[in-house]
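Question (not urgent): is this output format expected?
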Amino acid sequence: MPSRSSALLLVLAVALAGLGAAGCSTADAKRDAEVEPSGLGKEVTVPISASITTLVQPGAEPRSVLHPAYDTDQTQQVTLRTDHHIEQQLNDQAVRDFSPPAVTIPLTAQVSRDGVDLTLGTATSPDPALAQQLQSADGSHAAFAISDAGAITALRLAPKPATPDAARAALEQAFYQAVYQSIAFPVEPVGEGAIWKVRQRVSSGFPLDQVTTATLTRRDGNLLTIQLEVTQKPISTVWNLPNSAGSLDIVDYLMYGSGTITVDLGLPLPVSGSVTVGGRQVYRDPRTSVSLAQNISTQVQWGN
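Got this back:
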């Protein structure tokens, strides 16, 4: 197989991994591509694209505006777990598994004037090497800026200086996945059975149109149970690869997901729940007709 084909595979895997939409778990691939995660060695603040919320159905009476009301004197403890699977096949070669290890992160959230400050506990992973490195990140910090509608508008990550590169990359990716599977509320009053859509542009190396359909299935005071359905579609049919590495035709791309989360309007993070998004993607190099297919699945879980 020409060397260009191998380079194509590596560029694709690492470009996706750096944005948290997919992952290249092998150290060899990262070393060969000579790419580092964006936040290595320093604090990083990432702006999150604006979302547009549209009410589809207001639901039953009684109705009220779902306005988060955080108590700055209260802390929340919750655990975030992300599990990402990616398999890639170049032409008719054998399928290769580029799945990074799952990561579980205990979080303590504190609301401040600037948003939500997070202190990370000892993160764990089923991969022994990564689990060892994650111990150095105990006590690291992250933060969200949140709008009045509950939408996350910025993400700040500040791992402890001693945190190894692989652990930094795993934490960065976990938070990206969590941010883009969060939900904003409509400005109109709603009741049980309400349906609204949240449209947001996200990036997987190229811009995607993400639409999340939320259904308020139950409300008990401040406690909301929300069913989510997520679709992602590319805005363009061409992907211009980073570092002037050429372009790929997007032959097939459809990501779909669903899940349910429980949200307390008095707390900044979901109380519990799980959302899984997955699908199949096919890319082709127009100059060599080399094709690359991916099967991807990402699960974000909140709980104790």
